[in-house]
Design brief:
The protein contains 4 helices and 24 strands. By secondary structure, the protein is α/β, with parallel strands linked by helices. It has 2 domains: 49 residues, no CATH class; 178 residues, 3 Solenoid (UDP N-Acetylglucosamine Acyltransferase, domain 1). 16% of the residues lie in helices and 30% in strands. The strands form 4 sheets. A 9-stranded mixed β-sheet has the order 1-4-7-10-13-18-21-23-24. A 7-stranded parallel β-sheet has the order 2-5-8-11-14-19-22, with no helix packed on it.
């Protein structure tokens, strides 16, 4: 469909979009005029209620959605238990096949303009997972703000869940493909986590870290400062 027809079509139907059956239907009809997958990001910007793919499963009674949120094909938001909360702020993009689960006492908060690529797992049982603004999360990342007790003589399955305080990911963090973040961790503002890392301890702001367990390998450098140092033949600090 030509752009001059597509945009009015999308605007009309996205005015009717929302979380109800008919709102989801309107999103689906709007999507006919747009390419699939990330080609439908534009629809989230056209409607205040955002775009929720017809194939997404939203089974969460305490879900709070901001404006212009994108929830892609096959995304699952599921609650099992009591006292669970999920808050997704404005202009968050959650792409295909991500799974968000909350259990007793678990919570998830995602800050504005954060983008989550396909196939990520958010398993928020017992502890809290807080993700800041402008965070970039690559495909297949996983987050576990809890653990099982592991006393001998009992099956792991039968033992209670415990938490060391949950997970905090501050603003402007970039998590590479397949990273795993475990309970009790804070990743500081502007940190970069390399692909395949397992984050078991705090990562300071501005650090570049990788490995299993993840360790600091360097620091992000201000572009202007790096340029000045390069012109002088010295290394930035």
């Amino acid at each position: 469909m030509a752009l001059r027809v597509r945009e009015p079509w999308g605007r009309f139907w996205m005015r009717l979009a929302g979380r109800s059956f008919f709102g989801r239907l309107a999103s689906g009809i709007a999507g006919w005029a747009y390419p699939g997958y990330k080609g439908r990001h534009r629809l989230a910007r056209l409607g205040v209620a955002g775009y929720i793919a017809p194939s997404a499963l939203l089974s969460h009674s305490t879900l709070i959605l901001g404006q212009h949120v994108f929830i892609g094909d096959g995304v699952i938001l599921f609650s099992r238990g009591r006292d669970t909360k999920v808050r997704i702020s404005d202009e968050v993009y959650i792409n295909r096949g991500c799974i968000i689960e909350t259990g007793d006492g678990g919570s998830l908060s995602i800050g504005s303009r954060t983008t989550i690529q396909p196939g990520c797992q958010f398993s928020c049982y017992k502890g809290s997972l807080t993700i800041g603004q402008d965070v970039q999360i690559a495909p297949r990342c996983a987050f576990y703000p809890y653990n099982h007790e592991m006393a001998a003589g009992e099956s792991i399955k039968s033992q209670p869940l415990v938490t060391k305080g949950g997970i905090m990911i501050e603003d402007d963090v970039w998590l590479g493909y397949g990273s795993v973040v475990l309970d009790g961790v804070t990743i500081g503002r502007g940190a970069v986590i390399g692909a395949g890392s397992v984050v078991t301890k705090d990562i300071p702001s501005g650090a570049i870290a990788a490995g299993a367990p993840a360790k600091e390998l360097g620091r992000r450098v201000d572009r202007a400062k790096a340029s000045r140092c390069s012109s002088r033949g010295s290394k930035p600090t």
